Task: inverse folding
């Protein structure tokens, strides 16, 4: 049985201007120890997918349909009180900006210990202290004991993100959701953090959902990839299928417009146009206005097609 | 280097120090620029690459006159503009224009884009309204903005379109030099390629000289003629594009190139990344600034600060080992 199975998830925002279908009927699953990458442009619904799993959608946002089965239990039916026991314990999240995810007026040590004590109140403070220091060492933060007394502003961006990851892993979660965890960091630091996340997820046997706009990062890190466009998954399959043999024109475009270091092209490939507003979606396939293969058939939203292990939504395959 | 290059801008030994507060009473010097030197040639693009905090934006602001250098010179034609404010620069100022990172904050939200684009012509030329609007219209089609949209406000445009407007504003006076500070970092991947291609087209059409400031070494490959790599307030490598990508000489450049994620390379493993992060520019080390992260480090690196050395082909690097 899969660790997490998301079926036909629909998360809508009921705004004054109309209903925004931020996540519209998406399904995916993740096995124990697996890394799933969710790729897409801003506004594609990647983060909302992550928030939906953790039941962190604020009004006017709401899950209107679908199931999120985690260890056999449907998370959409769990009430907030029970969810507090799951969140930060069995499922943890790492956010994009380490600057804002840490409390600026609490020491690093207190933030770590609080997280652990909240979910394990039988432990003594001493045990928790040692476990926290040990975790800071696992994420390779230099001089861990000293850092327990530091405040977030005394650390660099990369160090802060290590602390956030340490907090997320402290209770040995079954599933870690990382929402653009390296976007705010420099490339060299990004490489360190990616390496760390891959290593820790295999050491701890945790599954990881990695949300990013960068398909190159996903290809280095993930086992499975879901490509999202305007609220819907357009292609979903194993990393090798998606990266080396993309079928959906949008996935193809995303890969082709990556700058690479070892080719001699003069210009970059570009996908024309922009992603449509979720309030004003075109009839039929959402990508048709930017797609070079589009014709009349694309005026109807494509049915799900299954090719091997992969799912793809396109008429032109 | 070939002879047909005409020097437009010469940056020589520019230093910039900021005073920062440490604790309640203490003050310390933050060395943002430590003797930055490079040349820019007419019609060519120089890319300035480095991580956040390396001083790449600071040098841009010195060239633009938003900061005044503490020492060193910036020669624009015959004149040294390193210590002059935009006002003191007079007519020179209109020859240097800027494209900022965030098109959401660089356009005045209360003005129609027609007004925004007309403004520079109003200030710097004697054209009448009709002539000005003719220039604005022709430029709009160059950057791919429908001239019918001129009476819309910035919020009615997407990020990519706004960046096109910002580009149009920067080139409308036909400036000699354009500084583009991370012009694509705030945009989505599919839009980044559009803007990058647009900048290359415009450069060809108007023979622009471009200083392209970025943290992303992978895009530099497309747009540059020359590349300068910055680290902790100094240039550590300067070379024609081909040479830099083919045979990088400085260990930091090598590290940058190896950490760019691509779909063809596996995740970078431990060895390259063993050693930490950038030093602070407040207490600079005595030796090589990069020594604490360098895999080739030995004792001399901790004591002697290396100079920029030319390998004889215009490929400069600040490392005695390569």
Result:
């Amino acid at each position: 049985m899969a660790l997490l199975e998301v079926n036909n998830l629909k998360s809508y925002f009921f705004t004054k201007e109309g209903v925004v279908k931020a996540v519209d009927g998406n399904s995916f699953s993740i096995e124990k120890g697996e890394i799933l990458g969710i790729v897409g442009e801003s506004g594609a619904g990647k983060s909302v997918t992550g928030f939906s799993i953790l039941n962190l959608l604020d009004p006017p946002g709401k899950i209107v349909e679908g199931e999120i089965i985690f260890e056999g239990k449907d998370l959409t039916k769990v009430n907030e009180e029970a969810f507090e026991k799951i969140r930060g314990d069995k499922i943890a999240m790492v956010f994009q900006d380490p600057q804002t995810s840490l409390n600026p007026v609490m020491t690093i040590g207190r933030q770590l210990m609080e997280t652990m004590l909240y979910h394990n109140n039988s432990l003594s403070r001493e045990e928790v202290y040692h476990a926290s220091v040990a975790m800071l060492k696992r994420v390779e933060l230099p001089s861990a004991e000293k850092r327990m007394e530091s405040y977030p502003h005394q650390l660099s961006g990369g160090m802060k993100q290590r602390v956030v990851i340490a907090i997320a892993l402290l209770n040995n979660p079954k599933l870690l959701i990382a929402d653009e965890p390296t976007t705010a960091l420099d490339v060299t630091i990004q490489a360190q953090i990616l390496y760390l996340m891959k290593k820790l997820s295999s050491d701890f046997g945790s599954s990881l959902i990695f949300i990013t706009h960068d398909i190159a990062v996903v290809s280095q890190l993930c086992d499975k990839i879901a490509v999202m466009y305007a609220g819907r998954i357009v292609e979903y399959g194993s990393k090798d299928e998606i990266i080396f043999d993309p079928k959906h024109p949008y996935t193809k475009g995303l890969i082709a417009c990556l700058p690479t270091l070892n080719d001699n092209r003069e210009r970059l490939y570009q996908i024309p146009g922009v992603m449509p507003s979720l309030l004003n979606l075109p009839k039929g396939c959402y990508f048709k206005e930017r797609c070079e293969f589009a014709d009349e058939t694309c005026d109807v939203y494509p049915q799900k097609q299954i090719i091997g292990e992969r799912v793809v939504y396109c008429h032109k395959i | 280097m070939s002879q047909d290059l005409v020097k437009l801008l010469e940056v020589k030994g520019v230093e910039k120090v900021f005073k920062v507060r440490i604790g309640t009473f203490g003050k310390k010097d933050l060395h943002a620029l430590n003797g930055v030197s490079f040349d820019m040639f007419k019609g060519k693009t120089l890319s300035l690459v480095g991580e956040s905090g390396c001083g790449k934006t600071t040098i841009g602001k010195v060239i633009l006159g938003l900061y005044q250098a503490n020492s060193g010179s910036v020669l624009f034609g015959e004149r040294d503009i390193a210590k002059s404010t935009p006002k003191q620069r007079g007519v020179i100022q209109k020859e240097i224009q800027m494209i900022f990172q965030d098109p959401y904050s660089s356009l005045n939200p209360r003005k129609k884009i027609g007004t925004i684009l007309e403004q520079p012509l109003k200030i710097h030329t004697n054209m009448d309204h009709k002539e000005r609007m003719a220039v604005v219209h022709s430029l709009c089609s160059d950057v791919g903005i429908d001239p019918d949209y001129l009476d819309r406000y910035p919020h009615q445009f997407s990020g990519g379109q706004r960046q096109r407007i910002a580009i149009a504003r920067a080139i409308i006076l036909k400036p000699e030099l354009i500084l583009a500070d991370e012009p694509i970092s705030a945009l989505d991947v599919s839009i980044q390629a559009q803007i990058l291609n647009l900048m290359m087209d415009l450069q060809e059409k108007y023979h622009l000289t471009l200083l392209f400031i970025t943290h992303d070494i992978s895009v530099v490959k497309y747009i540059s003629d020359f590349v300068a790599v910055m680290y902790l307030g100094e240039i550590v490598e300067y070379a024609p594009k081909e040479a830099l990508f083919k045979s990088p000489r400085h260990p930091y450049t090598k590290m940058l190139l190896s950490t760019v994620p691509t779909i063809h390379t596996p995740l970078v493993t431990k060895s390259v990344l063993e050693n930490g992060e950038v030093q602070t520019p407040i207490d600079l080390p005595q030796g090589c600034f990069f020594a604490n992260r360098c895999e080739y480090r030995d004792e001399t690196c901790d004591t002697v600060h290396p100079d920029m050395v030319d390998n004889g082909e215009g490929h400069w690097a600040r490392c005695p080992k390569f």
